[in-house]
Write a structure and sequence with these properties.
This protein is mostly helical. Helix content is about 60%, strand content about 5%. The protein has a three-stranded antiparallel beta sheet with strand order 1-3-2. Strands 4-6-5 form a three-stranded antiparallel beta sheet. The longest helix is centred in the first third of the chain and has 21 residues, at about 10-30.
């Protein structure tokens, strides 16, 4: 077995294999050992220099006097067993030639010599790391650290002063943490989400949604699970499936489990464990007196795929420990699992506002990093940050994979060079994750429903049809063109054509911004002939609206191009440029044209007498990368063209 090389995942696999070999060796020699102790030792090397089998006296000393006191939670009664296990461990390395042990007697001697100090340091909480400090408090208060709600409730209780703890000890740990650059679990500061208006999304009708739910992998698996449970299945004392049952269920589900026969418990089959936990959270099955039973009242739900899908989607936030299961017993609770409800809500916001457009996972990770930092307080520096980020990003990948299974998210990998460059630019990472995530139509429906339940204003297209025009324009201003088109068409269709045209025409004159007024012009085409009549009236009245009316009539074949006068078209051009300015895209729009045309834009804006001309020229003068174009705008501002 190679002692180094490969990434963290490969090191973890080698560590697991080595621990398993040690367990078999100890059993064969009649030695009673605690494999957790060796797993902890392996973790020290995986997160350190990666030397799994190279141990010398200094390594053993650091393990006993630094790593264990700071990181490893053991009952006092287990301390002597930990020392005995380490004696067996170094014997195993030497006897099997699995490691580089040059002085076996020296290793045994340092274990014996360190024993008194080991017990002193394990006793003194000032030697603890921050995560171990709070984990110890949870154990004292009988908090199940695998129960996300219980952990969150404990942390809130600490924050409001309901839990006593030694603040001097915590202060000393925090002081050491600051000096050494550690980044450990700290108490969160919970903030209420600030509901704000969200854009609408194009969601299929309910019949189509039901068909989509019917095809979701998770829906089929829930049905298989409930049928398999039948009259009930006996569980272990830890409320898990027996390993034989877990294997049987995995085969029924068609789970790709290469280590199926090697599974020692259902925990070794995470997809099965997740499915059972998810079904329990969705109230499809329950545990009664050590047996897993189907919930009789949920039987009808299995024949209503959309309702079944929503029940599962709604329960997702409760699955942190199962979705983000630790890779080893020593790893401890996942940071992301502890805040999965907030993570899920952040994902819904990010993906829903994208309207079904693929979003780079790198951007989602950046948003979640900031949220987790605020909630859990892990720092931005220190030697453990890279490992910690690797772990929670692994958990984020597991979250997205679970959402893909339920049919809420679609994951793809970008192969486009320009997209890759853009992801690098936005993320600041030269080797970014190129995965793209988007909500499926089913996911859009579920996310909107979930966001509304949290108090967010997430209107449907049908609801916007009854809203005032000003609100409609505010909501759809930054939406994808197809969403804008659907909303405007539906809004017009819900009204008398003449009334809609009159209201839109008034908005074309008095709308609060150029961007909003352009939306009214886009909606006017859905009113038919009444819209044409209103455009002709506006043209006769002149001004910016008159110029836009001229452009609108020409583009809809209601006016010959040669009949349009230059001042009218300059005003229309300026109104369109002003809309770009409203969106912060004026410079981007200009630089996409030849320099001669860009100079023409400056002269057009300066001469058209548009009310926003000074603001636009100021932006061009300040921000345009071309010196000549910026100088022309500056000259216009100085009076040369105005």
């Amino acid at each position: 077995m190679s002692d180094s090389g490969g990434g963290p995942g490969q090191l973890e696999e080698r560590a697991d294999e080595l621990v398993a070999e040690f367990g078999a060796w100890a059993a064969g020699h009649g030695f009673e050992v605690d494999l957790f102790v060796v797993e902890a030792a392996m973790d020290a090397r995986v997160t350190g220099d990666g030397g799994l089998t190279r141990w010398d006296s200094a390594d053993i000393g650091r393990l006993l006097l630094e790593w264990f006191p700071r990181k490893v939670t053991l009952e006092r009664s287990e301390w002597s067993g930990a020392l005995a296990t380490l004696h067996c461990w170094v014997d195993f390395l030497a006897a099997t030639r699995r490691g580089d042990v040059r002085d076996l007697d020296a290793l045994h001697a340092v274990i014996d010599r360190s024993a008194p100090e080991f017990q002193v340091r394990m006793t003194d909480e000032r030697n603890y790391g921050l995560a171990k400090f709070w984990m110890t408090r949870m154990i004292e208060h009988d908090v199940d650290i695998a129960d996300e709600d219980a952990v969150r409730g404990f942390l809130r209780a600490v924050q409001v002063g309901e839990i006593d703890y030694d603040q001097d000890v915590l202060g000393e740990i925090m002081g050491r943490r600051a000096l050494e650059g550690e980044a450990d679990l700290v108490l969160p500061e919970f903030e209420e989400h600030d509901p704000g208006p969200l854009p609408p999304a194009l969601v299929p009708p309910e019949g189509e949604l039901a068909s989509l739910a019917e095809s979701a992998i998770a829906v089929a698996r829930f049905r298989t699970l409930v049928a398999w449970v039948g009259a009930g299945r006996a569980l272990t004392t830890t409320k898990r499936l027996r390993v034989a049952d877990a294997r049987e269920l995995a085969l029924l589900l068609g789970v790709d489990a290469p280590y199926l026969e090697r599974a020692r418990s259902s925990a070794d089959l995470p997809e099965v464990s997740l499915l059972v936990a998810w079904a329990r959270a969705a109230r499809l099955v329950r545990v009664v007196k050590g047996r897993l039973l189907a919930v009789k009242s949920a039987a009808g739900l299995l024949d209503r795929p959309l309702d079944l899908w929503w029940r599962a989607f709604e329960a997702f936030g409760e699955l942190g420990p199962e979705v983000c299961a630790p890779a080893s017993r020593y790893e401890g609770p996942s940071l992301l699992a502890q805040v999965l409800p907030e993570v899920a809500l952040d994902l819904w916001l990010s993906l829903y506002t994208a309207g079904g457009t693929p979003v780079p996972v790198e951007l989602l990770a950046g948003s979640i990093r900031e949220m987790m930092s605020a909630l859990l307080g892990f720092g931005i520096g220190g030697p453990l940050v890279g490992i910690r980020e690797m772990m929670w990003r692994r958990d984020l990948a597991a979250v997205l994979a679970a959402l893909q299974t339920v049919g809420a998210v679609e994951l793809t990998v970008s192969a486009d060079a320009q997209e890759r460059d853009k992801i690098i630019e936005l993320s600041g990472d030269d080797d970014p994750d190129l995965t793209l995530a988007r909500l499926t139509p089913l996911g859009l429906w579920g996310a909107r429903r979930a966001l509304r339940a949290e108090g967010f204003d997430a209107p449907s297209v049908a609801e916007l049809a009854e809203a005032p025009l000003k609100r409609v324009c505010e909501v759809v201003e930054h939406c994808a063109p197809e969403v804008v088109e659907s909303v405007l068409e539906t809004w017009v269709a819900s009204r008398d054509a003449k009334d809609a045209a009159a209201e839109l025409a008034a908005f074309c004159v008095n709308g609060p911004s150029s961007a909003a007024r352009l939306l009214a012009w886009a909606a006017l085409e859905h009113t038919g002939m009444p819209g044409v009549d209103q455009a002709r009236r506006l043209r006769s009245e002149g001004g910016v609206a008159g110029g836009m009316a001229t452009e609108w009539l020409v583009s809809h074949g209601e006016l010959a191009p040669e009949a349009a006068e230059q001042p009218e078209m300059l005003l229309a051009l300026s109104e369109n440029m002003a809309a770009m300015h409203d969106h912060g895209m004026l410079i981007e729009e200009m630089t996409g044209h030849p320099l001669h045309d860009q100079l023409g834009f400056v002269h057009a804006i300066a001469s058209a007498r548009h009310p926003d001309r000074i603001a636009m020229l100021t932006t061009i003068s300040r921000d345009h990368p071309g010196h000549g174009i910026a100088a022309a705008a500056d000259e216009a501002l100085g009076g040369g063209l105005l």
